[in-house]
Amino acid sequence: MPDPRKAAIIGCGFVGASIAFALMQQGLFSELVLLDVDRAKAEGEAMDLSHGLPYAAPMDIYAGDYRDTANCSLIVLTAGAGQRPGESRLDLIGRNIQILRGIVPKLRDHGFDGILMVVSNPVDILTYAAWQLSGLPAERVIGSGTVLDTGRLKQLLSQRLQVDSRNVHAFIIGEHGDSELAVWSGANVSGVGLDDFCALRGLDGRRQTLHGLYEQVRNSAYEIIARKGATYYGIAMAVSRIAACIVRDERAVLPVSVVLRGEYGLEGLALSLPVILGHAGVETVLEVPLSPQERAALEASAAQLREAVGQLRL
C-alpha cells in the first residue's frame, strides 16, 4: 500500500537535486528517498538537504535503493543524459531509453504501485515507454510535460502585458520540445480574452508579439543551456507544483504529459494536454476547444512523436 507521505527521486544530478530541494521547502512529504547510480552522490545530496531541515518542516531525507521505493506514493524519475548545446530533446532518445529500461523494471519488481512522474527528456517519449515498461495504469504514469513551458509563457506574457503572472491563463500543449504549440484561442487574463486585454493595454502588433513570445518559450531551454549548461530551477518548481496537486488532491488543471487513448483522435503516444490531476493521478484529460490552426499544429506534433515511439520496439 503506497504511503501518501513518502516519495522518491531517481537521479541526483542538477535537476533531481533541485527538485528535492523544492519538495523539502514545500513540506509535502515526511519521507524522501534519493537514488542515484552514484550512491555517494545521493548520500551527499541527502546530507546537504538534511542540514536545512531545522528551518523547514520535519522530514526524513536519505539515500536508498529500489527496495525503498516499494511503498512510495510518488516517484520522480530524472535519471538520464542531459541536453547538450545544439541538441534537441528528441536527440536524447537513444541514450535515455536505455537508462529507462534499467530503472522501470526494478520499480515493478519491487512492487511499486504509486504514481510515476517522468522528468527526463525527451519526456513524452519516455513517459510512453515508462507506461509500457511499468505495467501501471495510464492514469498513474505522467510526465512533467509542458507545465514548465506553460510557466514560461505565463511569465513572458505577464511581463509584456505588465500584469501579475498568476492572473494569466494560457497553455502550451503537445510535445515538450520544438513542435509544442500555444493555445492562444483560449488564453485570457482573469477572464478577459487575450485579444481584449491586449487592446485594453494598448498593445499593437498583437500577432507578431505573441508569435515572438511563443518562440522565446520554445527556445528557452536552448538559451539557458548555452549560458549555464543546464536548466533545473524552473523544472524543479514545475515538478513541485505537480507533486502538490497530487498530494493535496487538488484536482487542478495542469498540462502534463499523458498516454492518449483517443483524445482528439490520437493514441499510441504520450504528449501534453490539460488534465484534472489529483491523488489518484489523471482523473480526466480535457479536450479543450482549439482553433483549426491549433488542431493542425497538435496533430503535426503528435505525428512527430508517434514516429519516434514507433522506433522504440518496446
Indicate the topology.
Blueprint lengths: L2 E8 L3 H13 L4 E5 L3 H12 L9 E4 L8 E6 L15 H17 L5 E4 L4 H12 L6 E3 L3 H15 L6 E2 L2 E2 L7 E2 L5 E2 L2 E2 H7 L5 H23 L4 H15 L4 E10 L5 E12 L2 E5 L6 H19 L4
If you had to describe this structure to a student in words, what would you say it looks like?
With 314 residues, this protein is of the alpha/beta class. The protein is built from 9 helices and 14 strands. It has helices at 14-26, 39-50, 93-109, 123-134, 147-161, 194-200, 206-228, 233-247, 292-310, and strands spanning 3-10, 31-35, 60-63, 72-77, 115-118, 141-143, 168-169, 172-173, 181-182, 188-189, 192-193, 252-261, 267-278, 281-285. Helix 1 (14-26) crosses helix 8 (233-247), helix 3 (93-109) runs parallel beside helix 4 and helix 5 (147-161) packs across helix 7 (206-228). The radius of gyration is 19 Å and the shape is globular.
Shape: globular
Alpha-beta classification: alpha/beta
> How far apart lie the N and C ends?
28 Å
Order of the strands making up the biggest sheet: 3-2-1-4-5-6
How many distinct beta strands? 14
Radius of gyration: 19 Å
* Percentage of residues assigned to helices: 40-55%
Strand content: 15-25%
Number of helices: 9
* Regions with little confidence, pLDDT below 50 for 5+ residues: none
Give a short account of the largest sheet: 6 strands, parallel
The sequence of SSEs as H and E is EHEHEEHEHEHEEEEEHHHEEEH
Question: How confident overall, as mean pLDDT?
Answer: 93
